[in-house]
Amino acid sequence: MPKQIKYIFILILPLLFFWAGSTIELADYGNDPNYIYIANAAAICDGQGVGHIDNPGTTVMEIGALTMAVSHLFYNPENETLVKHILKEPLFFVNAIHLVFVVINAVLLLLLGVVVLKKKHSVWVALLLQTLTFQSANTLDHVWTKVSPEPVLFAVTCLYVIAILYYYATDKRLSLKYILTFAVLTGAGLATKATFLPLVLVPLFLFPGLKKKIIYLLGVVLSFVIFTIPAIPQYKNMYYWFRNMLSHTGKYGQGEKGFLDLSTYFPNLLKIIQNNPVFGAVTIASLLALIVFFVLRKKETNKWKNKPEAPILLGLTAANSFGILLVAKQYSANHYLIPVLMLSGISVFFIFKLLIKSEQIILPVLVSALILYFSIVQPPKIKYAELGYRLTNEELISTQGIIDNNYPDYTKVYYYPNSMNKFSALNFGDVHAKHKLLSHLKEVYPNTYFYNYSHEIFQVWNAEISLLDIIKQNGNKILLVGGPRNDEGAQKMIRSNIPLKTVYQGRVQGIYELDSVKFNELALHSDIQMIDEITCDAETLSTDNQFYLGSNNKSFGNAYNRTNEEARSGHFSIKMDEKTEYALYYELSNLKAGDTYEISIWRKADNNSGRLVVSAAADKSFYKSQNEYISTDNRGWNLIRIKVEVPQKLQNDTLKIYLWNPKGKLAYFDDLTITHYISNLAEVTN
Q1: Residue 685 pLDDT > 50, yes or no?
Q2: Over the range 444-476, which residues count as b (16 or more CB within 10 Å of their CB) and which as e?
């Protein structure tokens, strides 16, 4: 076959990959996983470290940050700073990163074929390696439509396979450059996702001798550290995350303690084989090929030296087998298997090299059969997934039209976390970035409200706020956007005294109007009664000047940091800086289970420094800390509030209230209020 024709053949599948990946429709504002990586990449762009370390996924964030920085240079119509531009137009940057991933992987798929031809293997070998990357529709969906570790895993494993081909083709395969090449790629893969772990095994079979193995493993550690530089401050949390993954039977380190849940593990093993028949067949064939090779040729002691195919296939088979065993612990979809699925082509290649002398007939038939099989099986699955994304986007557009046309002057409260809109997606990402973008979000989108259904609380970004506060600040026109998406969820909110009128309820979107008339009636006849309120404005001190005196002559600890530099009311406030870590101590004693306390204080600080803390006095059985504010007055003071419903375990116990300034930055506090509420029903019962 002429050389030019060979290159045309190996160009077909990369072009198909690029066309499918670049034209498939993505679901707008799919928060998990896209916005986890968008938010952390934005944090890198802001000169910060990352907050998400679960995969670890750091390489995704680094590529994302670079892509967003370059995209921002070429498109910035409002002349915004980079981070604000990302927050205002997140879809633009999601699409930019998605396109970069598709281009990178299409190019690497082409490079894979080119390397095969360069190393003088047949065009059928090139097509074999390229074709088997299409064996799972689920993995293709993740590689084509997600800002997640999967596209990067696809790329790194492509490079890994190319490195194996170079290693196999040279006579100097034990040189340091190959050891370091595999170390760099393995470290990059592990920095992307822990599912790359099985591929650590392959080089251990390629390089004989303890010294070379140690150099390789040390190189892997160094490479991992380099690729996770933005996550270094989070190494301690990363350690606990992976420790919990190993020591608990549930997903993501949850569930009961234990290494395996055998009731799910063995069914998962079966599912992996059933869902991946080609990969299962390749793994079994690899094992059989190795058995045949070593049984038939065990008397030939130099076979390891004379036939490098054996250790290579042994390493690949070990990786594939370990990958199956590893993923079965928490198997839910094929994208967890991407690194080992990508080894299928190279595994088949070495099966042929090890046992079959002639590839001229079997290999073309096998490749043709695989191409025919995948062309029949995969397109309907991909089209089905894309149909879901398209229907989702159409519904989001149509419901946004309802909101814009019929409720333009309503205050929107976004159902969180599992709703599809820009604000819930950004909030979800910021939570997984450990709130590194929160100050920017508040600046770009002030007074943005959420209903966190997991905790059944209203929030203004990360700070808890009551629905009554939202109404006081914005009026009675309140619209709940994003969910719930079924009657059961809506009724649950209604039973919690949040009366709703259904505007729209669909597959991925729900819209409800607050029934303000009914809400006001409920508030008027509420069984919750305020029985006491204590205030402290830092104006009055005890006779020995050691304590603040509040209302009813209540005493608050440590008055040494009173200042007249700033004050919200009167002439004095509490100053905290690098010399003051704790201030303003007060105890609530003789607690009654079921009672409610609202503790609020005003803070003035340029850096969000300083926290209000409420905790159990004797131990760590209760702890709440808040540094995020719910509103700002016209003089720049921010209101911080914590609501405490006394649990049964604190009956007759004591809560301590204090200010904490762990970063030692300048902050002023004034006008503390502690409001005590009881339930009239509880009072009658008692």
Answers
A1: no
A2: beeebbbbbbeeeebbbbbbbbebebbbeeeee
